[in-house]
Amino acid sequence: QVQLVESGGGLVQPGGSLRLSCAASGRAFGSYAMGWFRQAPGKGREYVALINWTSGRAYYADSVKGRFTISRDVAKFTVTLQMNSLKVEDTAVYYCAADDNSGSIPSGRVSDYDYWGQGTQVTVSS
User: Which residues contact 123 (CB under 8 A, 6 or more apart)?
Assistant: First the structure.
């Protein structure tokens, strides 16, 4: 089995930056898709950034494109989300997730992901 643990959340002012990290354990990643999802109070969980583990190709939701960057370190089995130019609307619990049966293009559907971290709170406020 795979365990995922997020870290790096916190309080930041609008326009600021945060970097989230996701540490994976249990087995090496080979044919996985990894994703960062977020959920604000009273709203559904949505993807913000996805990455093909093998190729490193990244995909972003329109709401974060140009501001967020997802990357992975294959040797360390970690995934990061660099968040710049943060907005109040980015406030949410952020979750790291892994899909162990991914196609070449990662899925943005919550139901396609097999493993989830516990979540880390990101609050953007002045």
Answer: 10, 11, 12, 91
Per-residue pLDDT of 92-104, as tens digits, reads 999 999 998 888 8
pLDDT in tens, 42-51: 999 999 999 9
**Which residues, 6+ apart, have CB-to-CB distance to 117 below 8 Å?**
4, 5, 6, 22, 95, 96, 97
Please state whether 10 falls in left (phi above 0), alpha (psi between -120 and 50) or beta: left
DSSP assignment of 8-62: --EEE-TT--EEEEEEEESS--SS-EEEEEEE-TTS--EEEEEEETTT--EEE-T
